[in-house]
Amino acid sequence: MQTAQTIHFIVWGPWTMLLFLVTGLWFTIKSKGFQIRGFCHWWKATAGSFLGSQEQEEASKGGVTAFQSACTALAATIGTGNIVGVATALTAGGPGALVWMWISAVIGMMTAYAETVLGQQYRYRREDGQWMCGPMVYMERGLGIPWLGILYAALAVLCSLGMGSMVQSNSMSGTLEFSAGISPMISAVFITALTASVILGGTSRISKVAERLMPVSAGIYILFSGAVILSFWERIPAVFGMVFQGAFTPEAAGGGIAGFLLSRSVRFGLSRGVFSNEAGLGSLAVLHGAAEDTTPQQQGMWAMFEVFFDTIVICTLTALVILCVCGGNAPAGQDGAALTAWCFSERLGILGEWLVSGAMVVFAFATIIAWYYLGRQTAAYLGERLFVRTGGCPGGFLSCYTFLYLAAVFAGCLCRLDVVWLISDVWNGLMAYPNIAALWVLGREVSFPKTWS
Fold first, then answer.
1. For residue 449, is it within any domain?
2. Does 54 fall in a domain?
3. How far from chain centre, in Å, is Cα 9?
4. Orientation of helix 184-199 relative to helix 167-180, angle to 10°
5. Which positions ≥6 away from 314 have C-beta within 8 Å?
6. Residue 79 is part of a domain; what is its CATH number?
7. How many other C-beta atoms can be found within 10 angstroms of the C-beta atom of residue 19?
8. What are phi and psi of 132, to 5 degrees?
9. Would you call 31 helix, strand, or coil by DSSP?
10. Which residues, 6 or more positions from 346, have their beta carbon under 8 angstroms from its beta carbon?
11. 311-323 per-position pLDDT tens digit
12. Whole-prediction pTM value?
């Protein structure tokens, strides 16, 4: 355990956080601040367009639409990190940490854009007609370093079996046992069966479930969060005063950046259940790979929207609920999900506790199905490279991966996962290094929309 903790610190030390921020800042400068100056443009191209006739036409063809692809990515990124990570940031850095979460998110939007654009530019169709997309592809075809792509794919597969399945199902099982008294064994059978019913339907079913699940679940969370915040309307000016007044203390900067990175990409071991945006890890490039009739820039802007919605919208609402209810002083012994649940229950009673529990269960399940897609894509890439002499990836190889994934979901409901957390964190960190290196080398190929209106 001590060895795992030491390796975890080496992989996720301050230098890694700095690397994420510097990379995002570089693309921000390269794009001349597109995420800010081009706000109206990318908003109209994403959230403002998903009800259009083109989306409906694509859906009628049976393909994966840009909106479905975005919902799948949101399913992987909006998670318990939006509950646990925010509370951790505020506890560590005070109310001013929220400003630094915003700053870090704005910078990270351009990293998400860059890796998604590159993924789209280098993607190709496999023999079965499915798209192959992700950092492993642009590492092989862009950098010309096939072994680096194989390494990335292997790490992604391992992460999907740990962080994407075991840890998520463990969070669901623990929440169901605490809030509803459901035994872990019953949860294991139910969650595994529900997961199988979705993932065995392939990419199309995963996308359709994500398309229906994410808008509803996120919408309910926004609705109840807004209700709590507005019920303290007289405190809102004072809350924002605390946020901006405390933003420029060393504690706030450290807590805010750490909290943002915890909830978006670093998955630090001190904040269990933290799953969010992951800009810089390369997962967004994989998750956007199935979108049909699209362009690299359009998918890049959807990735920007996901970072914005995940952190600037959802995380901010969680933070404002906490600050409106308890100000800058959290009750003793309350942190993470417990603090968030306590704050909701202060205004909504038992309904508040059920809301937080329900949000954690739904968000975790959405992450499970989205990470299966990511893991299966990287497993298919590995299969193509391992069985190249026999004509590509055999179906049995992917069936084996599916079995292992479902087994991991089942085991995660029943096991303690302290070591799995730490090891999965390390795998995530190791995914980031080759991906960021590829972004720096291939960054010159990333183009940005010229119409900012």
1. no
2. no
3. 21
4. 130
5. 78, 82, 218, 221, 222
6. 1.20.1740.10
7. 17
8. -110, 120
9. coil
10. 325, 326, 352
11. 888 888 888 988 8
12. 0.83
Chain segment 340-391, per-residue pLDDT in tens? 778 888 888 888 778 878 887 888 888 888 889 899 999 989 888 877 655 6
CA dist list (Å): 255 to 154, 246, 325: 32, 11, 20
* More confident of the two residues 21 and 332: 21
CB atoms within 10 A of CB 254: 17
Widest CA span in the chain: 69
C-alpha 153: how far from chain center: 18
> Which H, E and C letters describe 186-251, residue by residue?
HHHHHHHHHHHHHHCCHHHHHHHHHHHHHHHHHHHHHHHHHHHHHHCHHHHHHHHHHHHHCCCCHH
The DSSP code for 422 is H
Number of domains comprising the chain: 1
Cite the DSSP H helix spans in 79-145: 81-93, 97-122, 135-141
> CB 15: neighbour CB atoms within 10 A?
9
List of residues 6+ apart from 372 with CB closer than 8 A: 160, 164, 165, 195, 199, 206, 402, 405
> CA torsion 329→95→353→414, rounded to 10°?
-100
The span from the first CA to the last CA of the chain, in angstroms, equals 53
- CA-based nearest residue to 223, from 396, 359, 366, 397: 359
Residue 452 domain-assigned?
no
Q: Nearest 5°: phi and psi at 379?
A: -65, -40
Amino acid identity of residue 248, one-letter, is: F
The contacts of residue 111 (CB under 8 Å, 6+ apart) are: 20, 23, 24, 27, 279, 280, 439
Interaxial angle between packed helices 81-93 and 97-122, expressed in degrees from 0 to 180 and rounded to the nearest 10: 140
Contact 7, 420 (CB under 8 A): no
Burial class of residue 197 in the structure, from the number of CB atoms within 10 Å of its CB (0-12 exposed, 13-18 middle, 19+ buried): exposed
* Cβ atoms of 163 and 424 closer than 8 Å: yes
Structural domain boundaries, residue 160: 8-48+61-444
Token pair in block for residue 217: 């679940």
Is residue 2, in this structure, part of any structural domain at all? no
Task: Report pLDDT digits (tens) over 127-151.
Answer: 777 888 899 999 999 999 999 999 9
Question: Rounded to whole angstroms, how far apart are CA atoms 11 and 27?
Answer: 23
